[in-house]
Amino acid sequence: MRTNRLISRALAGFVIACAFGLLAACGGGSGGGTTKTQPPPGNNVATLTVNGGPAAGVDYADAAFTSVTVCVPGSSDCATVDGILVDTGSVGLRLLASAIPSLTLPQLSGSGSTTYYNCVNFVDGTYLWGPVAQGDIELAGEKVSSASLQLIENPTGFSVPTACSQGGMNLDTLSALGANGILGVGNYPQDCGSACQSSTSPDVYFTCGASGPCASSTITVARQVVNPVVGFTTDNNGVIIEMQSVDGEAATATGSMIFGIGTETNNALGSATIYPINSNGFFTTMFNSQALTESFIDSGSNGYFFPDASITQCADNSIAPGFYCPANPLNLSAQNQAQSGTENTVNFTADNAVNDFNNFSSDSAFANLAGPNGSSNCGGGSPCGFDWGLPFFFGRNVYVSIDGQSVPSGAPAAPWWAY
Amino acid sequence: MRKSASDSCMKFPFAALLIFVSLLSTHAFASLGGDAASVDADVAQMRAGRSIEQAATYTVQQLNTDSGTTVREYVSFGGRVFAVSWQGSFVPDMQQLLGSYFDQYSAAVKANREAYRGRRPLDIQLPGLVVQMTGYARHFHFRAYIPQQVPAGAKLGDIR
User: Fold this and answer.
1) Which of B117, B129, B139 best probes binding to A when mutated, by most A CB atoms within 10 angstroms?
2) Cα separation of A223 and A94, whole Å?
């Protein structure tokens, strides 16, 4: 049985590592362990850590965190915040206001005596709300000046507009968010784009008085919450997420976020295969003989999520609701459609998530977390996609090119993925 | 299996009433579980740019909202909205769309997140309500349906 095998392997690793003095803390609950790689040097390299996150009492599995320095524009009045979730599935920096208590960033003024507020909705029905602020943002040795970002903050004196909340859950605290903020480094330069410049109907930007009311508002593209990468002087056309491999489970995992694609000696595209995305941001994954036409890669999703009605789901009242719980680990494969129309196979494993969490309760990196996504009958056009979450990044270099930015010679126009 | 409704719309004589209805609200759509009355209002409004598809045991009304999001409502021949869906970059009015199921949806979203910290596609499976959403923060695809009210012969995979 796999569980026993893993425990045996963990014990063996424990003994060996302790014997050679390789572990700082041999009491850790590491499972299969990780393969150490040296981060490439350079001022365009930010460190990533999968360590459960900054919230006390919350082990946020399969989430990669980094740190960011934010300053009042043009000043040395700065704060460095760690525990920032790195998210290729959204765009822009969003910081809990409570994480930078000593820093007062200027907020973006609307017409009259109003302030701009921003709303972002996530696929799980959660949302973030708060004022648009401006700051100089530093990541590793890269910097963007006077960038718009979102301060996550519950309003006082008025309620979050229902056009933002939409019945969802406000992740307005460290405990609820599981992070001090989110760094969205997805395929787009702003969180909304021209739709929010020409119309109020997206309900992404609002102008609010000091105690309300709020009204949906237009906003120029230049003032929208921005992907910090596009504001860098150089290395501004995308990022590479390079995570070490994880064999089963590990207490932690580390990696790098490298800025720029083909702009420095440490970020060449090399032999990576390009996966172009359509106007909705999706590519096609073939799985179980079905075409999953709304597939995407998302470091902010903490598992492999795909439709398969034959796999047992974990009980709602278990330690892992919403994940798959097969009796035995399932070795599966899928094919992603690349630029040339070729299909490249990805092999992956779906573990029993309840066993994973119970047997490796001190671990934060799980290579085989998986769960359902959308309809399992894709022929009729129902929501059908493969969400390649953080486990997909383990042991890979994943390139995220940004819409409208330059690309290396010979590559198709952005945006695309490559790995 | 499907035909455009524009032909039958042309035969409808009350043009003045139609204009009045579309002025009243250009956003209203029927709610999940809604009855024939709410559907009638939508059928009228459909003429101002909506389209309708006819399946064997139900009709599908499609509305393109101002934000570019496409909303679809699935109506049984008995006049019940048994499913709704939407896809696009921006979330439509969920209270309007889910109607009496909105509170149940809202409670399930919160229970989901509170039960486990992490982000993943939405998959709510309650005895009387299924809600699924996939995508990411620039394009979503959502559907909700009432399993007991899905007409015989309708395929779940067609609720898109």
Assistant:
1) B117
2) 15
| Residues comprising chain A, all counted | 419
ipTM of the modeled complex = 0.89
What per-residue confidence (pLDDT) applies to B138?
85
In a mutational test of the B interface, the residue from A58, A59, A94, A123 whose CB has the highest number of chain B CBs within 10 Å is A123
The CATH number of domain A45-231, selected from 1.10.760, 3.40.50, 3.30.460, 2.40.70 = 2.40.70
DSSP state at residue B151: P
Is B1 an 8 Å CB contact of chain A? no
Average pLDDT over residues A144-165: 96
pLDDT tens digit sequence for B57-105: 999 999 988 899 999 999 999 999 999 999 999 999 999 999 999 999 9
Question: What pLDDT is stored for residue A265 in this prediction?
Answer: 95
3-class DSSP string for chain A: CHHHHHHHHHHHHHHHHHHCCCCCCCCCCCCCCECCCCCCCCCCEEEEEECECCCCCCCECCCCEEEEEEECCCCCCEEEEEEEEEECCCEEEEEEHHHCCCCCCCECECCCCCEEEEEEECCCCEEEEEEEEEEEEEECCEEEEEEEEEEECCCCCCCCCHHHHCCCEECCCHHHHCCCEEEEECCCCECCCHHHHHCCCCCCEEEECECECEEECCCCHHHCCECHHHHCCCCCCEEEEEECCECCEECCEEEEEEECCCCCCCCCCCCCCEEECCCCCCEEEEECCEEEEEEEECCCCCCEECCCCCCCECCCCCCCCCCECCCCCEEEEEEEECCCCCEEEEEEEECCHHHHHHHCCCCCEECCCEECCCCCCCCCCCCCCCEECHHHHECCEEEEECCCCCCCCCCCCCCEEEC
Q: How far apart are CA B60 and CA B102, in angstroms?
A: 21
Are the beta carbons of A202 and B89 separated by less than 8 Å?
yes
Q: Does A212 touch chain B (CB under 8 A)?
A: no
**In the predicted structure, residue A337 carries a pLDDT above the cut 90:** yes
Quick check: do A45-231 and A267-418 share a fold?
yes
- What are the structural domain ranges in chain A? 1-30, 45-231, 267-418
Average pLDDT across chain B, whole number: 80
- Residue B80, classed as helix, strand or coil, is coil
Query: Which fold is adopted by the domain A267-418?
Result: Cathepsin D, subunit A; domain 1 (2.40.70)
Could B141 and A169 be called an inter-chain contact, meaning their C-beta atoms sit closer than 8 Å? no
Q: Which residues in chain A have Cβ-Cβ distances shorter than 8 Å to B68?
A: 195
pLDDT band at B35 (very low <50, low <70, confident <90, very high): confident
Stretch A12-16: mean pLDDT, rounded?
Answer: 38
- pLDDT tens digit string along A355-389? 999 999 999 999 999 999 999 899 889 999 999 99
Gap between the Cα atoms of A389 and B157, Å rounded = 24
